[in-house]
């Protein structure tokens, strides 16, 4: 970071910005339900004003372009929490995307398990296979991923950055302040 931020004040402003972005990302991606939307709204306003006021070059022009996704997260994530009445992470598309590889494997190719003579039978076989895979008895027989670092089931030490880059105690206290 010393190569990027040669000025100490810019370095401190950058650290504050990263801390606040980490807090808002942790809160919005969390699975807790009761989020104080007023605090979340204020944090988003603070982040956007911090970017606009603290990161200005000598000519008075902003040198940090604001990405549309960053603006949406900071300015509008509190609205999603109010509309959903709960955690917005429950509306993730990751489960739907997870099925794509299974559907492609069953649908066609050399190892296709679905009937290929018409679309109706092909789709029926794919959905039947999906229902079988979601049966609780069969799902419990699948191999469970276990973390070698914390020994918890459901993630691996490679898939989670929490072990080495988790929030600091200061960030954790700020994050906990967002929940009612």
TrEMBL record:
Source species of the chain: Meganyctiphanes norvegica (Northern krill)
Domain of life: Eukaryota
Protein name: Uncharacterized protein
């Amino acid at each position: 970071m010393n190569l990027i931020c040669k000025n100490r004040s810019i370095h401190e402003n950058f650290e504050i910005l990263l801390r606040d972005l980490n807090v808002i990302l942790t809160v919005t991606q969390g699975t807790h339900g009761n989020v104080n939307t007023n605090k979340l709204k204020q944090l988003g306003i603070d982040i956007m004003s911090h970017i606009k006021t603290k990161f200005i070059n000598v000519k008075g022009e902003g040198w940090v372009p604001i990405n549309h996704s960053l603006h949406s997260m900071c300015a509008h994530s509190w609205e999603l929490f109010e509309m959903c009445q709960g955690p917005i992470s429950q509306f993730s598309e990751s489960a739907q995307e997870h099925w794509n590889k299974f559907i492609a494997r069953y649908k066609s190719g050399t190892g296709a398990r679905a009937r290929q003579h018409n679309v109706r039978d092909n789709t029926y076989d794919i959905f039947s296979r999906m229902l079988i895979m979601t049966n609780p008895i069969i799902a419990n027989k699948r191999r469970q991923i276990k973390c070698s670092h914390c020994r918890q089931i459901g993630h691996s030490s490679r898939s989670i950055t929490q072990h080495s880059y988790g929030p600091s105690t200061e960030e954790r206290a700020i994050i906990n302040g967002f929940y009612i």
